[in-house]
Every structure is written in C-alpha cells, then in structure tokens.
Design a protein that fits this description.
Blueprint lengths: L10 E4 L5 H10 L6 H9 L2 E7 L2 E11 L3 E9 L8 H13 L3 E6 L4 H5 L4 E12 L12 E5 L5 H12 L4 H10 L1 E7 L2 E11 L2 E9 L2 H14 L4 E7 L5 H7 L2 E2 L4 E6 L10 E4 L7
Parallel strand pairs: 4-5, 10-11
Antiparallel strand pairs: 1-2, 2-3, 3-4, 5-13, 6-11, 6-12, 6-13, 7-8, 8-9, 9-10, 10-14
Helix pairs in contact: 5-6
Length: about 290
C-alpha cells in the first residue's frame, strides 16, 4: 500500500512486544487513555497487526480468540495524519482474515459503525461509559449466608466458569491473565462463589470490571465495595445498556459520558446463560 502522505510504502506485520512503546504513543496521540501497562496486558492475551511507513507505526488493530467459535476485535487506531485514506479498512480486513470463520464481536464509536457494517457487522446493543470520582457509595446488603471475600488462585476455575456462562463463550484465558493484574472479590454463599468483580489500574485511574452476578442487587454490592475502596480516585465502569445500572452509577459520582459505544457482531452472537449476567465489561476492547 502506498502512503498518500509521501512517507513511503505502508507495510503490515504482526505486533511484537517491542512495538508497545510506539503503539502506546500512537494511542496517546488519538487521546486514548491506555497506559503502557494496559497495552502489555491486552497483547499478552491477544494478537495484533501494525501498519508502518517511513515515519514509524501509523496504525494498529488487535484480535483475541475465545475458543474455536468466537473472537473479539479492537484497538483499531489510525494516526490522525493518515485517516480517511483506507488504512483502517486494510487493518480490519487483515484481522478478519486471521479470525477465520469465527463469529467476531466488537465495540465501536458512531464514527466506526459504517466501516464495520461494510464488513457485515450488525448492531447488538450499546455500552455506556461511566467515570468520575466516587463521592457516595451506598451500603448494599447481601442475603443470609453471603459475604464478599477476596479470591485466591484456587478460585480461578469458578471465576472462569461464571465468566464463560455470562458471555456465552470461553473466557478461561482472559480470567487467568486478569488474576495477574487485578484485585478480585467474589460473593461467597455458604462456600460457593456466585458473583465476582475485578478492580485494576487503567488509564487515568481505576476500572471496575468485569462485574458478573446473578442479579443487579449483587452487582451493586460488588461495585459499591470497590467504589468505596477508591473514594476520591478516578474510577471508570463500562456497562451494557441492559444492565440497569446507569442512573445508580451516576448518583454515586460515576457519570455517563456523552459518547455511547455500539456493540456489533459478524456472525451468530453467543448465547449467554440467562441465570448470570455480565453487568460491567472487562474493557470495551475485550468485552
């Protein structure tokens, strides 16, 4: 591909760990909040493609496999100086070729919807981003026999099972890596884990997610636990429009930002277990 800006031919290749400082700079140039550590985490569990010319890396896209049937697509970034020239389309096309016949899921802003619709993606819902400093965190009581406790490595299988049921696709690899970068608490009911929520450093502060629970009250109890532990800090949570949490989060100080994100799928979307729900995402890129 010829670079219209005259910086030479554009080459596409696999993303490598040594590229991360440069792709981090690219994301900062487009006002994405990711830290270098956030990039390291997502590359450890996925694959990436970079576009580069004589000036360096000018575009990225990433994808993550979830078993043989599903994949997520994300981190599609094009340098501001190289937009509207087909580079994003070339990156997405290469990523979709790598995912094969899998159903591919993603989240995108309104600007990205036409591009992904042209590849056969269809809307499946919305995601609301809430963020701010927590100034009020309500006490949410649990039922008899239930308590919130930190998880340990021996809980990994139970967490993976809940994450997989709530998303309708395998999530064991994601959970294994999440345990290395996040603090996680779970609701224990007479020795059985029935819900959990993670908190980790991200961007300008902290992100709460995923939050997986059988009902909204237990999801609120977990979110309130983490929000209370980080009162006064910058906290973010990305919640599906079906979560029923938006007004509650806003009252707590985590206001909804103007930009709503479109969830999309190419292929048959996964079917989550109706008895357990993903109330907050791990991230917009990872679902």
């Amino acid at each position: 591909m010829k670079d219209p800006n005259g910086s030479g031919t554009v080459h596409f290749r696999s993303m490598k760990p040594e590229d991360l400082p440069d792709v981090h700079k690219l994301s900062l140039a487009t006002l994405w909040p990711h830290r270098l550590e956030d990039w390291k985490f997502i590359l450890e569990i996925g694959e990436g493609i970079v576009a580069e010319d004589g000036t360096g890396i000018i575009g990225t896209v990433m994808y993550w496999f979830h078993g043989m049937d599903y994949a997520w697509l994300g981190m599609t970034i094009v340098s501001p100086d190289h937009r509207h020239q087909g580079l994003g389309r070339d990156l997405v096309s290469r990523a979709l070729e790598a995912t094969g016949d899998r159903t591919v899921l993603l989240h995108t802003t309104a600007d990205g919807v036409p591009l992904f619709e042209s590849f056969g993606f269809r809307p499946t819902g919305w995601v609301h981003r809430h963020q701010g400093s927590v100034f009020h965190y309500p006490f949410v009581p649990l039922s008899a026999g239930e308590r919130i406790r930190p998880v340990s490595p021996r809980d990994e299988a139970a967490l993976a099972e809940m994450a997989s049921r709530s998303s309708g696709m395998p999530r064991a690899t994601v959970i294994k890596h999440l345990l290395t970068v996040a603090d996680i608490v779970a609701i224990d009911r007479y020795g059985e884990l029935i819900a959990f929520a993670a908190l980790r450093k991200f961007g300008h502060g902290f992100v709460i997610g995923p939050v997986i629970a059988p009902d909204v009250d237990r999801a609120k109890a977990l979110i309130a636990h983490w929000a209370g532990s980080r009162a006064g800090s910058f906290v973010r949570a990305d919640v599906p429009d079906t979560s029923g949490l938006s007004s509650w989060l806003t009252d707590m100080g985590l206001v909804q930002v103007d930009e709503t994100v479109q969830a999309m799928a190419r292929g048959k979307p996964p079917l989550p277990d109706a008895s357990i729900t993903r109330f907050a995402l791990l991230s917009q890129s990872l679902g």
